[in-house]
User: Which sequence fits this backbone?
């Protein structure tokens, strides 16, 4: 237990801060900030964390609404779930190269945060880590390959950003030749991205990998890719055409849903099923040919494709899901 009555410390873990100071310096004896240690400390405006610190626990600064700045030392390796949740006055934060994981909703609701730099040490970013960060417009990446190797879980954001590779805004993205997979949510909602070049080394495109990339107009998928994940290109509103290579055997649910400018798409003979909602709300799609390899068309697969005037369904198809062509008013 610390001699300082404002801090409850046990075995190097800061259990609770009970003081009312606006500016707080954590004692050097602390090695980790425990769960809820500064929970709802409404008066806290700034904090200095000692170099002895290795982790920031779950909900450590939860709803510290007056916190405007914090310096995280190079000794910290993990930022826990909800660590800075609801810190609505936090305008900037530097994540050091030592950090390997950023937890679930770690910065959710930090509505004054405008940009953040993700170091190449980070290997996991939790679900909705930056959700509700209404002012966050820039994500700065220090290493593209390292970024592509991050485990994003399902999703990591709910807003649209400009991505920067070091100091350059990413508009035309070339994936490095040694990358084998594009992870879940890797460039989800990257509003500045206009084109992507994917090398032959890539075999899979993850869930929501490019979902919501509103400026994306073209993409070439190489013959090496075998699977396209759920929502991989959903709501890419500027994408006009796409060719799926013969190597692809599976297309996830909602993969191209909401691609409202998509006028044509080629489905290869390697595909055996068209999943649920895959082309839902592709309102500019006028015609499509389904190859003989397809045996099933999923629920709402072409729902609300209002300009679809013709579709060829082969004899190989044995099942068509409910509402597969509902509200295709031009058919």
Assistant:
């Amino acid at each position: 237990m610390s001699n300082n009555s404002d801090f409850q410390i046990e075995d190097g873990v800061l259990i609770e801060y009970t003081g009312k100071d606006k500016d707080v310096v954590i004692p050097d004896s602390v090695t980790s900030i425990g769960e809820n240690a500064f929970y709802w400390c409404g008066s806290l405006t700034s904090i200095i964390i000692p170099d002895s610190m290795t982790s920031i626990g779950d909900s450590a600064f939860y709803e510290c609404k007056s916190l405007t700045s914090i310096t995280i030392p190079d000794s910290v390796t993990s930022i826990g779930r909800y660590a800075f949740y609801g810190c609505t006055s936090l305008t900037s934060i530097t994540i050091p190269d030592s950090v390997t994981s950023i937890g679930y909703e770690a910065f959710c609701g930090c509505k004054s945060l405008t940009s953040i730099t993700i170091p190449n040490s980070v290997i996991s970013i939790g679900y909705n880590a930056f959700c509700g960060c209404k002012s966050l417009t820039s994500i700065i990446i220090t290493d593209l390959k390292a970024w592509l190797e991050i485990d994003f879980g399902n999703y990591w954001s709910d807003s649209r950003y400009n991505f920067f590779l070091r100091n350059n805004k990413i508009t035309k993205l070339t994936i490095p030749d040694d990358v084998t997979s594009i992870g879940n949510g890797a460039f989800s909602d990257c509003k500045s991205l206009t084109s992507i070049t994917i090398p032959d080394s890539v075999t899979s495109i993850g869930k929501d990998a490019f979902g919501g990339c509103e400026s994306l107009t073209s993409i070439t998928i190489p013959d090496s890719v075998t699977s396209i994940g759920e929502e991989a290109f959903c709501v890419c509103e500027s994408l006009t055409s796409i060719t799926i290579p013969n190597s692809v055997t599976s297309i996830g649910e909602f993969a191209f849903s909401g691609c409202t400018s998509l006028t044509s798409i080629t489905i290869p003979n390697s595909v055996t099923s068209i999943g649920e909602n895959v082309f839902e709300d592709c309102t500019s799609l006028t015609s499509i040919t389904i190859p003989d390899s397809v045996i099933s068309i999923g629920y709402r697969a072409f729902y609300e494709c209002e300009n679809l005037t013709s579709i060829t369904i082969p004899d190989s198809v044995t099942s068509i899901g409910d509402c597969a062509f509902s509200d295709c008013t031009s058919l």
